[in-house]
Amino acid sequence: MDALTILAIAVGLAMDAFSVSIAYGIKAKSRSTNNALAMASSFGAFQAFMPVLGWFAGVKMLDFIAGFDHWLAFALLLLIGCKMIYESTKPNAQRKAKPLNVYVLLVLSIATSIDALAVGLSFAFLKVSIITPIIIIGTVTFTLSFVGTVLGDKLSRFKPDQIEILGGLILIAIGAKILIEHLTLV
User: Fold this and answer.
1) Residue 95: which pLDDT band, with cuts at 50, 70 and 90?
2) Where does residue 90 fall: left (phi above 0), alpha (psi -120 to 50 degrees), or beta otherwise?
């Protein structure tokens, strides 16, 4: 898998964290660099760690699924993308942001990184080394989360839900690319 594809996956995965960061910045009107760093660090770390868990689980199952791994990768990315698009339609964006504390940060970090677990599973199925993807995914998520939190009040004209839809569409497109590449090689 090339670096550009991994970067696109990272951007797709980071859209959840980015939209939550923007929403937090908009709702909390927090201009604190410490809050932005805390949110970005937590989101980036979880987004980098979850694919590792998925990858290790996938490596254990690799021999069992070698014949249909491309279909499984496509299905996982399709489901994750559709889930992101569906969740963007939920009205939870109208809720007021909770104060940023360790508990809120932990819950938000886990919630925004579950998709990365499934992507790590896909990497294992595709026999992709996990080191480069986790560095890229963590860095992209950190950067987008920091920017989203800091600029949340300035980006209030954009809807975080639209950003999450874009992330879902990116993941679906990557899944389709993986499937098409495999089917045209066979």
Assistant:
1) very low
2) beta
